[in-house]
Structures are given as structure tokens and as C-alpha cells.
Amino acid sequence: RLIGRAGAAGLTYALVFIALPARGGGLWFLLAPESVARLAGRFNESPLEVESLTLTLDGKGAVELPPNGAIEIHPAQRFGVTRLNSSRWHNYDLSLSSPDIDINSVIEGTMSTTRELLPGETFENAREIHISVSDNGQDVADFRILSRYTALDFMARGDATDNHDKKVEFYQKAYQLDPESDLIRDKLMAALAVMGKSSGAQTASIYENLLAQNGPDEDLLNRLAGLYQAEEQYERLAAVLERLIALAEEKGASAAAQKARLAEAKVKIGRLEEAAAIYESLLAGADLEKKAIYLGQLVVIYRQNRDSEKVIGALKRLAEIAPSDQITALF
């Protein structure tokens, strides 16, 4: 049994002991202190209060956990339950149990790691371990221990393995745990760049998952757009470019280059009217060189649509800013 701090019942406990016959009471106290404490509790009649559970952690000392509280412990860190603190002297009628581990492996001076207690667990996600306090078989309090490997653990695994797929997997898990780490991000991006040369579809899927988990990211979107362009997946490329344009506009930045790429992708998938609308919208803010390029693209699109009136209109505008040989090249 885990002995806790003395509560208010301590005074009653002492009075009961003094009131007992000197010889018999003293012997009873020595041989059955819990029975004395139970008798004192009946005289006291104060409600049970479970105050805390004291854990001892390797390298950290004692930590007190309040009822329904939780503490995170690394899978390789040794810990033990030192005492249960309650309002009952000697914690009579109270017991500890756990549906997840062998409670005897962490009490009465014994310490273990969650890795030892749960040998088949991967700890890739936080594993909950419950420790319950029961009063005559009735649960009255619960404490939680959370245990999982950290981002640095997974990064170290990625550094150590020669299997490139595993390297990407470990870096990805590290990045999911710590998306703010520039070091982990750089390692993941470098590993994905290598993977993309041999498995563009798998790499694109990982990029999409990272974006779904962490929200819009300009660098990831640009990498994904590059993959889809290389794989000639223009429908998906268009969708990514639209996300990049929205992100740039949210930041108040120019999205002209991405819009031009989007117009090219729209042409590739046969959405000529949408492409033409994009080029027309780009003309207003473009310099003469860009205007000539956009008007040239409009001439091509209008010819594909067999819209001679718009072809002539685009050619007239092009003639105002471009030399005749550039116009001739369109035909």
C-alpha cells in the first residue's frame, strides 16, 4: 500500500490510539495500523479527498499529479509511483490499479519505462496509460500518463537509416510533430526531392498530406506544382496554382507569374475561354514585353476557337507594341 501525507484525520488517529488500552492498543497499532486508521475514519466521518499522485521520474525527481491530470513521459524514461496523497490516514481501503499496465511494476520502489511496460507499442502517437484509485472497488480518481517519441527521436531515426523510403517516413513524422522546425523541414524537403526523381506520385501524395495537416505553405505548393508540371498532370497543376494565387493575394503580393502558369495549364486541359480571361486580366499591369507575350497567346487561343473577330482585335493590339516579325511568327 502507498502511504500518503497525513491529513486532518491524523489528530483523530492519535486520539483513538491514546484512548485504547495501553498494552492492547499499542500492540494493535503496531500490527494493524490500517485497522486503527479505518476506526479513526469512522469517528472522523470526513469525506474522502484524493489530493494527488506522486511520481518519481529519472532525472527529474518527484512530480505531483492532480486527479484527472496528465503528464507526458518519454518511452525510455524510467518512472515509479511513490505515494498516493489523500485525506485518509494510511490510505485505508484505497488501492491503485491500471487497465493498461501491470501496476506492480511501478510501485513499492520499482521503476519501469513505458517501453518496457508496453513492449509491442510503437509510441508514434501519444499512448495513454490510466492509473485509477479505488475505494473498496469503486473508482474515485484517475490519473493519466502520456507517452510517445518526440520529433527529435524520429529525426534521429531518419538520419540513421539507409532506406530512403524509411528516411522520408521518419522525417515526415518528425515534421508532423514539430512543423516549426527549420532543420526537420529541410531534411524532409531534401529527402522528398530525391524521392521525387524516382516516384513523383508518392512524393506528391506526401506533399498533399503535409498541406492538409499544416495548412497553406508557399514552398510546399511550389514544390507540388513543379511535380505536377513534370508529370504533365495539368488538372492538378491548375488546382495547386489557384491555391498559390489565393495565398499571394492574401499576402497582398503579385500573383502575375502564377496566373500566367495557370493560363498555360488551362490551355493544356482545353479550358480556352478561362485561359483567355486570365491573359486579358494580366494585360493591364504588364510591361510591353509581357503584354506582347500575353497578346500572342490570346491570338493562338482565339484562332483555336475560330473567333476571327477576337483574333483580329488581339493582332491589332499586338501590332501597336511588337515588331512585325513577332506577329508573323504567330502564323
Q: What features would you describe in this structure?
A:
- The protein is an alpha+beta fold and 331 residues long.
- Helix content is 55%, strand content 14%.
- It has 15 helices and seven strands.
- The protein has a four-stranded mixed beta sheet with strand order 3-7-6-5, with no helix packed on it. A three-stranded antiparallel beta sheet has the order 2-1-4, with no helix packed on it.
- Helix 6 (164-177) packs antiparallel against helix 7, helix 10 (234-250) runs antiparallel to helix 11 and helix 11 runs antiparallel to helix 12 (272-283).
- The longest helix is centred in the middle third of the chain and has 17 residues, at 182-198.
- The protein is elongated and about 110 Å long.
- The termini are far apart.
- Mean pLDDT is 84; it is low at 6-11 and 27-31.
Supply the key terms.
elongated; 331 residues; four-stranded mixed β-sheet; single chain; alpha+beta; 15 helices; three-stranded antiparallel β-sheet
Count of alpha and pi helical runs: 15
Strand order across the largest sheet = 3-7-6-5
Largest sheet: 4 strands, mixed
Secondary-structure element order, as H and E? HHHEEEEEHEEHHHHHHHHHHH
Percentage of helical residues?
55-70%
Structural class: alpha+beta
Find the count of extended strands (DSSP E, 2+ residues): 7
What do the pLDDT scores average to?
84
Low-confidence stretches: 6-11, 27-31
N-C termini distance:
94 Å
Strand content: 5-15%
**Which term fits the overall shape?**
elongated
What's the alpha carbon Rg, rounded to whole Å? 36 Å
